[in-house]
Amino acid sequence: MRNLVAIVVLLSFCAACSHKEHHEEKAEWKELDSFHKIMADAFHPLKDSGNLAPAKKLATQLAEEAERLASSSLPEKLSNDEMKSNLEKLKTDSKALADEISKGATDDTIKQRLGALHDQFHKIMEASQGGHEDDEESEPHHEDEDDDD
User: Fold this and answer.
1) I want to staple 66 with a disulfide (CB 3.0 to 4.6 A). Which of 40, 91, 92, 114 is the partner?
2) How far apart are alpha carbons 40 and 38 in whole angstroms?
3) What is the per-residue pLDDT for 11?
4) pTM of this prediction?
5) Which residues contact 73 (CB under 8 A, 6 or more apart)?
6) Sequence-distant (≥ 6) Cβ neighbours of residue 103 within 8 angstroms
7) Which long-range contacts (CB under 8 A, 24 or more apart) does 87-91 make?
8) Measured between alpha carbons, how far is 115 from 127 in angstroms, rounded to an integer?
């Protein structure tokens, strides 16, 4: 019985350490968190109700946040060529979206570009979280699917 108690205590300790380590890894990249907030504010109204107004209003800010994110110091575990390439694409595509919106892009173009940008962001987010995501709203957007994201 003592062995069983010891095993349960040990497993609980390991689980708590693992959760703390995962939480600390997520919290170390503040530029990613900032971009995520703007992306959510721009994308979810479109996803939830077809409202493009926030995307149009936030496009320039989204591009600025992508620029900051791409030029930020990467967490050591993410400092590799693939991540740098993904961040550069996010920056370039965010700027292109803002430029297209400022030139009067059609709603369909904005929807397509923002959806692709959202997908690109989730590649980065998933890598930063060790290949998985914690919240159910984090699934990538796909134009040809009828899901809610």
Assistant:
1) 91
2) 5
3) 57
4) 0.71
5) none
6) none
7) 87/124, 89/120, 90/35, 90/66, 90/117, 90/120, 90/121, 90/124, 91/63, 91/66, 91/67
8) 19
3-state secondary structure labels for all residues of 50-114: CCCHHHHHHHHHHHHHHHHHHHCCCCHHHCCHHHHHHHHHHHHHHHHHHHHHHCCCCHHHHHHHH
Query: Both tokens of residue 130?
Result: 């060790």
Quote the crossing angle between the two packed helices 53-71 and 30-49, to the nearest 10°. 160
- What's the chain's length in residues? 149
Residue 111: which residues within 8 A CB-CB, separation 6 or more? Answer: 46, 52
Alpha-carbon distance of 55 to 61, in angstroms, equals: 10
Output the tens digit of pLDDT for each of the chain's 149 residues: 666 555 655 555 555 555 444 544 454 789 999 999 999 999 999 999 999 999 999 999 999 999 999 999 998 888 899 999 999 999 999 999 999 999 999 999 999 999 999 999 999 999 888 765 444 344 444 444 444 44
